[in-house]
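Dear H.,

Thanks for agreeing to be a second pair of eyes. The structure we're designing against is below in token form, covering all 122 positions.
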């Protein structure tokens, strides 16, 4: 009887952890401060940092460094901005975005498994 409770409790904890990881967690934001590119590491199934805050109305330069050999990581897509780029393994790729209006812009891999957010604030 105790074993059933332990298994059920373990299952609930696992479900709560999965829900938090995929839907409730909010990554710490990195703020762009000057004209240097913002470094984004592509590794272990995530973009790091996954949330970037920039000033709206100014061009943005992002430098992606892909260490993940997964085929899913070979492209980054900003669908709302109609921008995408191939990411070579082990070499930085600078992506220049035009001045963007205020808002939140998701960036993902082509299969939408890796996710990040670019937040443009006035």
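And this is the sequence the design step returned. I haven't edited it by hand at all.
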């Amino acid at each position: 009887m105790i074993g059933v409770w332990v298994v059920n409790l373990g299952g609930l904890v696992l479900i709560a952890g999965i829900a938090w990881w995929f839907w409730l967690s909010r990554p710490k934001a990195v703020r762009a401060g000057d004209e240097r590119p913002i470094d984004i590491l592509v590794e272990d199934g995530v973009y790091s940092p996954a949330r970037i805050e920039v000033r709206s109305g100014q061009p943005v330069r992002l430098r992606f460094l892909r260490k993940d050999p997964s085929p899913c990581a070979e492209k980054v897509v900003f669908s709302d901005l109609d921008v995408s780029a191939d990411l070579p393994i082990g070499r930085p790729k600078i992506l220049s975005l035009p001045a963007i209006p205020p808002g939140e812009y998701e960036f993902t891999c082509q299969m939408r498994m890796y996710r990040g957010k670019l937040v443009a604030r006035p």
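Two observations from my side: The chain has a mean pLDDT of 86. The chain has one domain: 28-121.

Warmly,
E.
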